[in-house]
Fold this protein.
Amino acid sequence: MTAKSAAAAARATVYGYPRQGQSRELKKAIEGYWKGRVDADALRATATELRRTNWRQLAEAGIHEVPTGDFSYYDHVLDTSVMVGAIPERHRAAVEADALDGCFAMARGTQDAAPLEMTKWFDTNYHYLVPELGPDTVFTADSTKQVTELKEALALGLSARPVLVGPVTYLLLAKPAPGVAAGFDPLTLLDRLLPVYAQVLADLRTAGAEWVQLDEPALVQDRTPAELNAAARAYRDLGGLTERPKLLVASYFDRLGDALPVLAKAPVEGLALDFTEAAAANLDALAAVGGLPGRRLVAGVVNGRNIWVNDLEKSLATLGTLLGLADRVDVAASCSLLHVPLDATAERDIEPQILRWLAFARQKTAEIVTLAKGLGGGTDTIAAELAANRADLASRAGSALTHDPAVRARTAAVTATDARRSQPYPERAAAQRTHLRLPLLPTTTIGSFPQTTELRTARADLRAGRIDSAGYEERIRAEIGEVISFQEKTGLDVLVHGEAERNDMVQYFAEQLTGYLATQHGWVQSYGTRYVRPPILAGDISRPEAMTVRWTTYAQSLTTKPVKGMLTGPVTMLAWSFVRDDQPLADTARQVALALRDEVNDLETAGTSVIQVDEPALRETLPLRACDHPEYLAWATEAFRLTTAGVRPDTQIHTHMCYAEFGDIVQAIDDLDADVISLEAARSHMQVARELAGHGYPREAGPGVYDIHSPRVPSTEEAAELLRTGLKAIPAERLWVNPDCGLKTRAWPETRASLENLVTAARTVRTELSAS
């Protein structure tokens, strides 16, 4: 096909779409089902209607081929485990008894069966359920979900493409099941897994699929020769099947690198590549292998992870370069639109001109359709859209919001000394022990306590004018008093004020910093039914006034025990926002760090002796390629130290991280120079404690003993056993006792019981230590 005919054939598609609905109908239906207010038929009906609504909207917008199979009640990797029959033995009976309840049990656990481990989906804030595999795993095909959803779309008269997690990525994301000998590599199960994928593909073809998309994002990471050989074998075998649809192998989030020649040689009909995060690298690599003659290329030129309007002319130039490298060039977002909110037009509190800078899922869909139209018909066919786009880009570039001379001058004046504590850790630790006088194995929580219906109602009442600020603050004051009283009665050693006044750990601060925009309806799935509204970091950042001092000081006035000041760190403020893309991330991080430094110093001045600066996104934001790690870690750790280095030696700085793989950033954790770090560890059975020990981490650490992402209450003995495991890696004088993460999403009954068991476990193990 010539470049001209390839352009004329260009079509618009997407890899996936937000699941929740305009008003988070899916979240409400699922949580209603868990509480017994919604039955299974009603839940399934809600899900069906949401899928159909999404497909119709996509088709009406001009999307030529809608995705199916990407919809999930909880997580698409969990759905893949069900599809291939990889059900942990402890959950098998539940799944066989009721597929829906069984999936929820795998995700959330039951009182008798722990859930699957949960961690971050590559370098995003989406969490997936980690498959558990072993040498005895037997895979069996169950394509019910995939076939049902395909048939639903086809019944609407739509062209549809099922989307599956690819077999190589699935195995690379998996971990050895509990009890499996160390060193087991799930990738050794590939030959056992491929026939199951072959059966699913055959089922989808029978159901009417012309194309099936197999997502292989793991191939954009550094892969060994053996892993690349496994990918080659997988797609040689799947491509060689006769009873199958056409195969589109998709990658995203970064450049394919050495995996691109492997996939280019595979007998598949199409590839989908990211031309936003890695446009130049993927373009050069594609040209180097001679393109994809006779095959389909899906070009992800619209950023599926951020919310800024696309530069249409730049994207058209990229698409034009791709013509001639494939038989057919289609236009798409760089990845699933799961990672962005649904519709920017729902926002009423953002100034209209600024709103034109933003593109959520529906606006990105329109951009994709516009680009496909322009590629196929020429720029004259989209002249009005191009003119409006140029105006929007110019408006943003020239806005006073994006440039504050005072902020830039302060940032430019930072020196290396500003990011160093005044004394080394051993001297600080001695000063802190004298000042705080904490027991062995001190107990604490991560920060937040349950956000009750009463608290959410109070915020809604304040927004609606049903109560005034004084009435709202009285409710917050009462909640803080109850939280402090509970912690004292339970016997926790370092208390928190509970964060009753906070809607979200990033949004709360963003709303008080200049340069940020807040949305009202910009919900994005984090995991399961947990949705967040990432704020938009649009301009230069400063702190007009103190943000947390008032409530922290009030809490401290209610107790003689230390109360932690609670802040979100600069890297997480970037990672869990939609961050500006018009300057280096390092520059933005330094601006945020300086604003937070002012808050840290004000907390200390107000008498706060323990200050926690959370950085759960430090690992999440780690680039997917090792060669990019040093530059990122250098500015990320400097930003944390810049935030925290201005305090006295006897002020104890904590940080917190959760739900990520920490082993490859232990040196960076060390480089933060925090006095205490708390980390998720319950689901991974203290793996991070062993990783810290292997590194020789010299400071205090609290690997979690209470999995807060499950409603189950860990027993005293369960928590104590985890502590004993932690003590094998971390000396007692440096080990803290805490949950995995904040308690915001939990209910009070389970929180009370779990924390009481946690404190009892700490006392039990202290007694054992004193007797030994």
Q: What stands out?
A: The mean pLDDT is 95. The first helix runs from residue 3 to 8.
